Amino acid sequence: MADWRERSEMNGDVVFFRYVSEGMEKSHEEVFLWDLDKTYLDTTIDSLSGLLTTVLEKALNKKNVPGTNSLLQSLSEYRKAQKGYMYFPIYFITASPPQLEERISEKFALDNIRPFGCFYKDNLANIRPGRFWRLTKQVGYKLQALLQLRTRLGENVRQICWGDDSETDAIIYNLYSDICSRRLGAHEIRTTLEKLNVTGDQVDTILELQASIPENDPVEKIYINLATDTDPDYYLKFGRRTLATYNTFQVALDLFQDRRIALDGLYSVIQDMIYNYGYTPEELMKSFDEFIRRGVLGQAAYLEVRNFFVEKGLLYPSYEPSVAPLKEKLIVEGRVYEMEGAHEPWIPERIDYLHDYR
After folding, report:
1. Domain spans, the chain
2. Which residues form the Phosphatidate phosphatase APP1 catalytic domain (predicted)?
């Protein structure tokens, strides 16, 4: 563990471990980015006690968020089957300290995951007077990490992002999108970030990174795991691109709708959640109905999934959802961007980052 500084790239709080060549990083047109804590691993690093527990925990004892490993395997297998890709372009970002990199890498190996890279926060340096407040403030750290990652990827890359509601991931990913696309000017970026407790040095670094990246929006989709049971309606202000989900099964439903996993991949997530995490088929089918009620799962995908669930014994043949699924209005390359009767934009022209209205 002592040699982590020699194996990483450091820039302030941001510590990056790269596991593939630079050429490999730039060669993929679609890249997946997962926040590690409460999105892939069931860890708590938003308090000093939680951070220390995570530091001491062995790789074998680190628990996945239910269904996430099966989902990653399904994403990887589908890409290989459809496009022949041998490598799965995924990066992780965590507020855990870089001293944990070897232990978390052991966990990745146990889960048969080979990420392209992983970002860590040099958080143990914040355990001292005058810096404790930085332990739980992630906006500056994560934005800087995301922009550093953007400099490593291809010009027209598309990113599918995962976060959770225990931090400010929806704000962070959407700010990243606005910064990359230049929807926000430098003055507005600085004013917004300062109000979000980002330090002056971090703001300067973020603006410097912005100047070195292509002027386009790389963010394709944002998934937010409702780890603390936030009202999903809150996320409507970020547009339909930002999707709040109650569990990994709902994420898998949307990924199937967007043709990123197959029905067999969706079923493997269901089996994992039932047999390894104690979910009941009835609980998952309630999530299915809730997804339809929110207008997320469209008519075409619903019919495919319904018939499959009936075949697998998860639904009765007479099943009907509590509301009729919306019809897909705009589909581009298999991705659903608009539904008839859904009025929220895919990406709003302006997002109010500073007020938590619902």
Report:
1. 4-246
2. 35-175
